[in-house]
Structures are given as C-alpha cells and as structure tokens.
Model the fold of this input.
Amino acid sequence: MRRTILYLVGGSLATISIPALAQDTAPMPDAPAASSDMTPEQMTQYGGWPEDKRVAYDGWPGDAQAYFWTLSPERQDLFWRLADNDKLALTAMAEPDREAAWQMVEQRAAGGGEAPTDAGPPSPPPPPPEPMDEAEADPDNPML
Done:
C-alpha cells in the first residue's frame, strides 16, 4: 500500500512538472532565422507578403532563399509560380544553364501568360449541342 501511494504521488508530480518544463523553452521568434541575413528592404518586402507566401519562402533551403533575392522583380514573380522542384533545380544550375532556363521560362510566360509549370486556368466547357429542328427529327426513330 505504501508503494502504491508513492507511485501515485510520483506520477502526479511527473504530470505537473512536464508542462512546467515545456514553458521554460524560448519563445519562437516572429521572423524566421534566415531573415537575419536579409537587408532592411528585403525584410520590408517579406513582411508585406501574405502568410502562405512567407511559409513557402521559409520552407526553401538557404541557397534558394539567397538566390531569390538576386533576381529582378519580374523574375521573382516568375520564381513564385514555379513548382518547388523547379525552384531547387534552377538554384542548383550553373549560371549559363540557369540563364537558358530563365529565357525559356520567360518565353513561356510571355506567350501564354503562365510559367511553364503552372497548369493554367481550365479550358471552357464545350458548347451544348444545338437542338434539332422538328423537320430533321425522324418520328419513326427517336434516337435520330
């Protein structure tokens, strides 16, 4: 009986102390750790993004984040529209290959208004079939 009481007391103390220990951790910063490498202009731009864009940016590796800030505003816009795998591949390319890839992305975006990895808006549905005139209908064959 004595051991049972000790187990209960020990279990109670453990459940009380775990949340107390969790509160001793440092609070999460408002800005990501990578933001410390950003210039004040970049921080301002980052702060103006919607939450989903900031989350996506924070998920990129550091080299992709650094490469993003080297792009012109037009290319930054196109970079957002690329699939994550394409962003990583573009970041890892050598400069001549990267420039050739950017030219292809820009040509496709200028031609169709979409970056090459975007699916684009769905095509409009086909028009409904035209109704048949009564003169064309065959009363003997309802399928025609």
